[in-house]
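Single-chain item
Fold in token form
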Amino acid sequence: MADKQKYKQSEGAGNRGRGRRIEKPQNAGKTLLRILSYLKHYKARLIIAAVCMVVTALATVGGTYFLKPALNDYIVPLIGQQNPDLSGFIRMLCIMAAFYLTGAAANFILQRMMITITNGTLRRIRIEMFTHMQDMPLRYFDSRTHGSIMSTYTNDTDTLREMIAQSVPQMINSVITVVSVFVMMLVLSWQMTIIVILWIVVMFLLLRLITGNSAKFFIRQQKELSVTNGYVEEMIEGAKVIKVFNHEPAVKKEFNELSGDLFHAASSANTFANILFPIMGNISYIVYAILAVVGAVLAIHGITDIGTIGAFLQYSRNFSQPITQMSQQVNSVMTALAGAERIFRLLDEPKEVDEGKVTLVRANISPDGTIMETPERTGRWAWKIPETDGSFRYEELRGDVRFKDVTFAYDPEKTVLHDISLYAKPGQKIAFVGSTGAGKTTITNLINRFYDVQEGEITYDGLNVKDIKKDDLRRSLGMVLQDTHLFTGTVEENIRYGRLDATHEDVVHAAKLANADFFIRHLPQGYGTVLTADGANLSQGQRQLLAIARAAVADPPVLILDEATSSIDTRTEALIEKGMDSLMQGRTVFVIAHRLSTVRNSNAIMVLEKGNIIERGDHNSLLEQKGRYYQLYTGMFELS
């Protein structure tokens, strides 16, 4: 149980699954207005749908009214006649059929309109969510589970679909039907309408009691469903880890508990929802019988007639069903509004702040140092820096990166880096070594502005990185991460991800540089081999070689290698060293490595411990110091 609650609390970071706490829409009116703002793109279809709703409701009401003249003018007078003239009665039946057929046709058009409106609206919302998500800071994804975010795209949008396509149109149709039927009952017999009014009072008391409980359980059901789906997704991603540690029994137990919570919420919700129709149906039968008796008494005393009684009784049947349907649709609307609030909460998350003005451009650099911007690929880059008078000046991208008294914390209560100062001159290779959690990867995350520093300054060719547009800054940096991610697609497409306009020859050259060409050509379709499930059909080392090739095809001025060879055996590592050296030639390179053999030829090695640089120097000077690096290199102290 503790594990289950811990998982639910982690989902709470994504606004889901906080144990037994019942979530309700915080501002239903504002959320509904925001949903309606998406429907403005379908004004014409909405007008047609509205007309069809009215026609559908009025056609049913109008068709029912013809029961009165049918009974009074044709059926009753024709009773006992030997050769009755049925032409008038048939004509009356045709008129009734025309009304009902018109209602059916209007309802068909309504459904077609709502399909287009609903799917089009959800398409816009999904696109807006995905587009907005691309501009959100990495911190957002670090603080939420994948299942929590995916639930917004699946469960929450599905409830919104049901609301737009079914619940709202049905509620509007029901309101029109109830109002028009009530007016017709008043016209037919105010005496019997009084009985219906008393019935309405009783019915609303019951609806308030039943739907109040039903709504909260439907909302809880939606939350439990989100938690369960998120858990399943996480367990699928971690299937290998589960099997490695024989964790199947514990996982089954946790899933059983989560499924149990979903079962209880769903059972409670549907219990209240399903008893509504039987209760209202049985009460309506009782009222129907009472109306029949009262109508008979009124007819006997000459106050009303048979046709009026027949039409009124049919209206009474048409009156109860829409009210019951409206009460049930309230549950769906409340659930959908709660889901819509989660969608809009994602859309309202602040985007990644980018106040940079400096951009990166391709450049032609003449022998005298004059820089000219060019659209052609020249292999040379320059910073395009705006001046106060509206003009621009150009500075060659050299790859000079400096940290000046940088202090950083992911959490304000826990500082990760303490007063870090370092520099990397153009073309230098700078290595970071140290224990896990020492702050090595954090430094590289700050260079590309996945996060911004709280204190100090990071400069790139003398420019504060905050003054450089993030897209341009990251375009100048090539990264090979320890955790390699491959997309569904061919090997060539995955390598080309580093530079989308790369030719096949560029891709092959990059693969050869990373020493990946040999194994790629031995795949079933070579560079055309389709990779799925994050490259599950490749070894970890092969996946990392593709990541290196992806960085190579981008041809960036600055490289960041975060444990880039951690999953490559020593033989393969030796084979790619020449290719890596060629790749790093003339570039500024930052290397994070546990294997000290990969950093020996670095211009400078930074030894970090608990967010501080405790030693710095090249390989030989650090060995002479006989400090922490010496202990690491000689095996006297192991990284952990």
User: Anything to note?
Assistant: Residues 401-634 form a domain with the Rossmann fold fold (CATH 3.40.50.300). The chain has 20 helices and 16 strands. The radius of gyration is 36 Å. The first strand starts at residue 359 and ends at 365.
